[in-house]
Amino acid sequence: MININARVRELIQERKDLRRDRLEHRRLEIFSRFPRIKEIEARLDSTGFSMMSKVIDGSETPDSAVEKIMAENRAFVRERTAILASAGYAADYLDDKPVCSVCGDTGYVKGRPCSCVMNELDGELAADANLSEKLAGQTFDRFRLDCYSPVPDPALGISPRDNMSSVLEICRKFADGFDSPGESLFFTGGCGLGKTYLSSAIAHELLRRGADVLYISANSLFSILEDIHFNRNVSDKSRYLADHAVDARLLILDDLGSEFVTPFTSSELFRIVNNRLLDGKKTVISTNLSIDETEKRYSPRLYSRIVGGYTIIKFFGEDLRWKLKNEN
Questions:
Q1: Calpha distance 171→203 (Å, rounded)
Q2: Burial (CB count within 10 angstroms: exposed 0-12, middle 13-18, buried 19+), residue 183
Q3: Residue 9, helix vs strand vs coil
Q4: Please, are residues 185 and 284 in contact by the beta-carbon 8 Å criterion?
Q5: What does the alpha-carbon distance between residue 48 and residue 56 come to, in Å, rounded to a whole number?
Q6: Strand, helix or coil for residue 196
Q7: Quick one: pLDDT at residue 294?
Q8: Which of 26, 61, 65, 148 is spaced 20 to 30 A from 131 at the CA atom?
Q9: Mean pLDDT by 10 residues, the chain (328 residues)
């Protein structure tokens, strides 16, 4: 698993080194063109020494020394700015400015990694969580409620859009309260209704907060578990994914029911779900099966654990993939 704090420190140090090199390059460029600016910079750099010298030799009182030195510095800065402006340079061309004005290149804001470094880490975090580039781009902010019909379903008394507005809020609260005790999530509904999208959005949000997340399809996970069980040739990455399905702080198991169900896969699913509940680790499961179909396909034991430890969220409406494809 990627160490967020270590990577943030590395990125910030790289940024500081680059900033230092760029500033040095600019100083050499300007000093070679304008020797007077080099003299001005030397005078500005010696401000503290000049001030102390005047106070120590008794020629100035502290307040008087400060006032005179500051007045001289303002004059030097005005002269430097005028020289730079006459050659088409910005007044702050020789200033050491942070890349990020939000965190000041510390990498953190109120104890959390700043967005400036998390944006650079998105690819690494997604790869570490087994999240594809496409899924990593599916975030809460990009979720489109306008794709869902505002017309109420006669049988349910609520429109798909209003339902998804509530679902979106549940998913946001799940991510916001991830570190607090709470239930896991069980997404159920037909194809193309946003289950995978919102699973990805939860993963993306928690990865950016430094949580340990694993995203994997049911078909991939159970294929790996079968290979391990029957002593087939298994890669180190596959073994890591199998172990991480149990110990990751958040497991997102996508498309449950797409795998070929056997007594072995049913038993392994129960083991993973049960162990994670016992360990207090949260899980998001998405499936095209209804909760009753899940009980029939797997086992009453699994059904009982899901009903008792998961918030069951129903998705309904028309397949949005067809709708979005037609729009495009």
A1: 11
A2: middle
A3: helix
A4: yes
A5: 12
A6: helix
A7: 92
A8: 148
A9: 75 89 92 91 75 60 74 87 92 86 87 80 75 76 91 90 95 94 94 92 88 91 91 86 91 92 92 94 95 92 94 89 59
Which regions of the chain does DSSP assign to beta strands (E)? 108-109, 112-113, 184-189, 213-217, 250-256, 282-287, 310-315
pTM of the model: 0.71
Q: What is the largest CA-CA distance in the chain?
A: 94
The pLDDT score that the predictor gives to residue 288 is 94
Residue 117 within a domain: no
Number of H helices, E strands in the chain: 14, 7
Does 5 map to a domain?
no
Q: How far apart are CA 113 and CA 136, in angstroms?
A: 18
Q: Which residues pair with 189 in a beta bridge?
A: 315
3-state secondary structure of 109: strand
- Structure-block tokens of residue 263: 């007594």
The confidence score (pLDDT) of residue 303 equals 94
- pLDDT given for residue 48 in this prediction: 62
| AA letter at 134 | K
φ and ψ at residue 54, rounded to 5 degrees: -65, -35
- The one-character DSSP state at 178 is T
Strand partners, 205: none
- The CATH number linked to 218 is 3.40.50.300
Domain residues for the domain of 249 are: 129-327
